[in-house]
Amino acid sequence: MAETVVDGARESAPAWRGGFGRLWGAAVVSSFGDAVRVAALPLLATTLTRDPLLIAAVSACGYLPWLLFGLLGGALADRVDQRRAMVAVDLVRGVLVAAFAAGVATGHASIGLLLVLAFALTSMETLFDNAATALLPALVLPDQLGRANSRLMTGQQLVKTVVGLPAAPLLLAGGAALPFATDAASYLLAAALVAPLRRVLPGRPPRPAGSTLRAEIGEGLRMLGGDRVLRGLCAATTLCNIGVASLVATLVLVSGRHLHLGDSGYALLLTAYGVGGIGGGLCATRLARRLGQARAVLLAGSGQILCLLVLGLVPGGLVAGGAFAVFGGLGMVWNVSSRTLMQRAVRRELLGRVSAAFRTCAVAGAPLGALLGGAVVRGWGPGAPPFLAAGFFVLSVLALLPAVRSMAGGQGGESAGTSRLLTKEDTGGAGVPVSRSGQGGPDDA
């Protein structure tokens, strides 16, 4: 088994056979279904209503449940059997999307039904994704977390960019219901892949008697807020997401009116971002080996500032595409490195709650960023969003600096979790938010 060294700890590659291979397969299958559904949703919405507010509300349903139920989903994920929770949620989501596909095929779909579906799917996601977050460290050795995260996220980005998005128009050509039927099948297949994991999962520590959901949620919040590294990483990610959302919400205007890329420019930028993300995922582990996870995050954020400045200062197709590809690659480095760092800092029994608290903070910034993006376009024109996003990334890097210095210098103030990361002998604990809790991108915002 090949080994590397990350933050002073030996890192080996996870075996494809067994639990990790099944989890990877389920994640990749789900990413394909999600890509197809996300591409089809706005197109279907425009055929059901001409009201732009209702069309925008479909996207808003991707944020609101996390703000309402995210913390609760994390607490439940720490209470229940995570494998069973994931299987149950995928089965329910598969049935719901299949029923919706049948409604579309028979002409009974409506914008109200579409809004209900979007809200329900995201609400169930608050439990599923927090449970999935806590499951990975139970399937691989602590020294395998970096490569496991890289393979998971790179596989998801690859199938989304190379397979899912190109397949969406082909499926739509076969009928408006076909993308949703495909997504339903992906949920059911993912459930079938995760279901046998009970044979390889270790037992979990028992939950204290008499503990309440409110108290457990508070414990996760205190863990996140009391740890200097996790707190800095959460603040930095939230600021990044505000900046990314401000750019993504106006990307059509930026690509058409500022970069002068024409009608196909928006799709080209999304493709460049996805391809860059694949490259970033392939390089993330190697970069972390040389710099350490925390410094890799800091370098990624700093590099993204330069990419955003290039987008704002140098209009043009090739330059913009290259800058957006590098931006996507560095975003993947950020996500892989920050996830691994957190998985080594948080005790397994707190994974779901810390993940939920982190993600709720990160998602809360996205609607604000989208509104700010629209405001700066109205006030300063379509070339302004890249500079606004760059400003938030500068604030993000500044928020991250104390955490990086704390880890590098072994200063006081960090919890037992992150202070363990400073020693060579430690190979870490577990836990982190899934992909959306890190930097968002064109697919997420």
Could you describe the 3D structure shown?
- By secondary structure, the chain is mainly α.
- Helix content is 75%, strand content 2%.
- The chain contains 16 helices and two strands.
- It has a two-stranded antiparallel sheet.
- Strand 1 and strand 2 form a beta hairpin.
- Helix 3 packs antiparallel against helix 14.
- The protein is globular.
- 58% of the residues are buried.
Could you give a short account of the major beta sheet? 2 strands, antiparallel
Measure the end-to-end span. 38 Å
Q: Quaternary arrangement of the chains shown?
A: single chain
Topology order in helix (H) and strand (E) letters: EEHHHHHHHHHHHHHHHH
Summarize the amount of helix as a percent range: over 70%
Low-confidence stretches: 1-10, 411-437
| Helix count, DSSP H or I runs of 4 or more residues | 16
Question: Structural class from helices and strands?
Answer: mainly alpha
The geometry reads as globular
Tally of strands: 2
Mean pLDDT comes to 80
Summarize the structure.
The protein is 75% helix and 2% strand.
Fill in the keyword field for this structure.
2 strands; mainly alpha; single chain; 445 residues; disordered N terminus; 16 helices; two-stranded antiparallel ribbon
Produce the secondary structure layout.
Elements: E1 3-6, E2 9-12, H1 19-48, H2 52-60, H3 64-79, H4 82-105, H5 111-139, H6 145-173, H7 178-194, H8 213-226, H9 228-248, H10 251-258, H11 265-291, H12 293-313, H13 317-343, H14 351-380, H15 385-409, H16 416-420
Antiparallel strand pairs: 1-2
Helix pairs in contact: 1-2, 1-5, 1-6, 1-7, 2-5, 3-5, 3-8, 3-14, 4-5, 4-7, 5-14, 6-11, 6-13, 8-9, 8-14, 9-14, 9-15, 11-12, 11-13, 12-13, 12-15
